Amino acid sequence: MSYKCTQCGRKIPKIEGFVRCPYCGSRILVKDRPNISKEVSTD
Ligand SMILES: [Zn+2]
C-alpha cells in the first residue's frame, strides 16, 4: 500500500508511523490504491 501527498501529489511508497511527505513536508497523506489491474498503453 502506498500513500499520496495531497499537497504535491507525489506518491510515498512506504510509511512508518508518523511520517510526512519527504518532498514538500506536508503531513496530509491519503491512501493511494494501487491501480495495476490494467496497464495503460500510450501507443
Ligand atoms: Zn508532498
Topology of helices and strands:
Blueprint: E1 2-5, E2 11-12, E3 29-32
Antiparallel strand pairs: 1-2, 1-3
The chain binds zinc ion.
Order of helices and strands: EEE
Helix content: under 10%
Beta strand count: 3
The low-confidence parts are: none
Major sheet: order of its strands? 2-1-3
**Shape category:** elongated
What amount of the residues lies in strands?
15-25%
Main sheet summary: 3 strands, antiparallel
Tally of contiguous helical segments? 0
Ends apart, CA distance between termini: 28 Å
Alpha carbon gyration radius: 12 Å
**Whole-number average pLDDT?**
80
Ligand identities = zinc ion
- Going by helix content, strand content and strand pairing, the class is mainly beta
Using brief descriptors, characterize the structure shown.
43 residues, three-stranded antiparallel β-sheet, mainly beta, single chain, binds zinc ion
